[in-house]
Specification:
single chain, 420 residues, Rossmann fold, 6-stranded parallel sheet
Length: 420
């Protein structure tokens, strides 16, 4: 089977993975009929404004407040959309979170709350506990992002440094009935880790949070140390205040990988899993070795192999470059492949933002290293300083989508063609 334009195919697969997770295409079928009485819509995350737009398309004008990332707002009839900073929180997010909590206070058992949560809610829902300032919270969050800690461990610490995460948002709405619709961006699709689980009970302890600080050597101010020596407000599973909450994941990475595989009919699809974690450069080296081994077994005329995977990789900051886990994966993959012919790849974040850059990810082919060398750019040095975005910008192989208005984590595809 001939592949006319491998890069175009890989980009089409990524676009399909994003498209199938668009709330305007997928959310309405998971909504119940609009309840009678007072209905309040709340939400947070990079997809939350699009989710709110989809709710009003189905239910009509609603009351509510949703917090999304700067540049991700959508037009709504009645739901107020507030933009705030991500991945490091800001005062706009804190002020909007306080207003959201106030909106929930005083609701009764006949009232209904629809919560819309997607990836990014951890930074956008920000309510530091008494004694911890926003600036201190921001410093801890920035240190976490640079630490290389996996997302579930980051969220353990975040929950215990918040008055809204770890079930506390749902507790604020009690005794109202709540349905929380979620888009998963976490490996394993555990609702407790999507946006740090603001509507989900959590059994972690302050000792677990201290363990994150110690294991990943997170520098924290004295106020945080004091907080982690006491009792936090995280709501345990089984608490009565969570008894009227239903949490439902309606879109997840596996669905997007399946949609990409369906688009690539005729290829030999190998699914590597939707929950991969680990250092981006290490996973890239493993997948490169796997791709080369598979290619060595291919005969002329065999169908090309397509390796698909999702999950959330991490980057431990070693330098001061501009990068993210998907671009770093691509750079490390190119180095490991070392110009091998017949292997092309893409790695992108489905929210359109890889790390803190407004870039989804990058593409790799057999000429990646050679083109960089011709420009006087060392791939090895770029990787050493975590400067993958600058590397791919220079050779014109960045993938830039703008806000995708959804978020089902990373998407990776490696296309392996037979030689000869």
């Amino acid at each position: 089977m001939a592949v006319q334009n491998p890069k175009a195919l890989l980009r089409a697969l990524f676009d399909r993975a994003v498209e199938v997770a668009d709330p305007m295409r997928s959310l309405a079928e998971h909504l119940p009929p609009k309840p009678a009485g007072r209905v309040v819509v709340i939400g947070a995350g990079k997809a939350s404004a699009r989710m709110a737009e989809a709710v009003e398309a189905a239910w009509g004008r609603c009351e509510g407040l949703v917090i999304t990332r700067y540049g991700y707002a959508r037009p709504c009839q009645g739901i107020e959309i507030v933009e705030a900073a991500h991945p490091v929180p800001d005062a706009a997010g804190q002020q909007a979170t306080a207003r959201m909590l106030e909106l929930l206070r005083g609701l009764g058992p006949e009232d209904f709350v629809l919560a819309l949560i997607s990836g990014g809610a951890s930074a956008l829902l920000v309510q530091p506990p008494e004694g911890i300032t926003l600036e201190e919270k921001k410093a801890v969050n920035a240190a976490l992002l640079a630490s290389g800690a996996p997302i579930d461990r980051m969220n353990v610490l975040r929950k215990h440094l918040s008055d809204v995460k770890g079930g506390q948002l749902a507790a604020a709405a009690y005794p109202a009935r709540m349905l929380c619709l979620m888009i998963s961006d976490v490996p394993g699709d555990d609702p407790a880790f999507i946006g740090s689980g603001p509507t989900v009970g959590d059994s972690s302890t302050v000792a677990d949070a201290r363990g994150v600080v110690e294991r990943w050597k997170i520098e924290v101010p004295a106020s945080v140390t004091a907080r982690l020596d006491g009792i936090t407000g995280v709501i345990p599973p089984g608490d009565e205040r969570l008894s009227r909450v239903e949490n439902r994941i309606y879109a997840a990475p596996a669905q997007s990988l399946a949609a990409a595989a369906e688009l690539a009919q005729g290829y030999d699809i190998r699914q590597l899993g939707d929950a991969l974690e680990g250092e981006a450069r290490e996973v890239a080296a493993d997948q490169a070795a796997h791709a080369l081994s598979l290619q060595a077994a291919l005969k002329p005329g065999d169908a090309p192999i397509l390796l698909l995977s999702g999950g959330e990789l991490t980057v431990t900051r070693r330098g001061n470059g501009v990068g993210g886990p998907n671009a770093e994966f691509c750079l490390a993959l190119a180095l490991s492949l070392n110009g091998a012919k017949g292997i092309d790849a893409i790695a992108c974040d489905t929210d359109g933002v890889d790390g803190a850059a407004e870039v989804a990810g990058a593409l790799v082919d057999e000429t990646t290293l050679a083109r960089a060398t011709s420009l006087g750019i060392s791939a090895t040095e770029a990787l050493a300083r975590n400067d993958a975005h600058s590397f791919f910008a220079a050779i014109g192989d960045q993938v830039v989508t703008g806000p995708t208005l959804t978020n089902v984590n990373d998407f990776r595809a490696i296309l392996i063609r037979p030689l000869g």
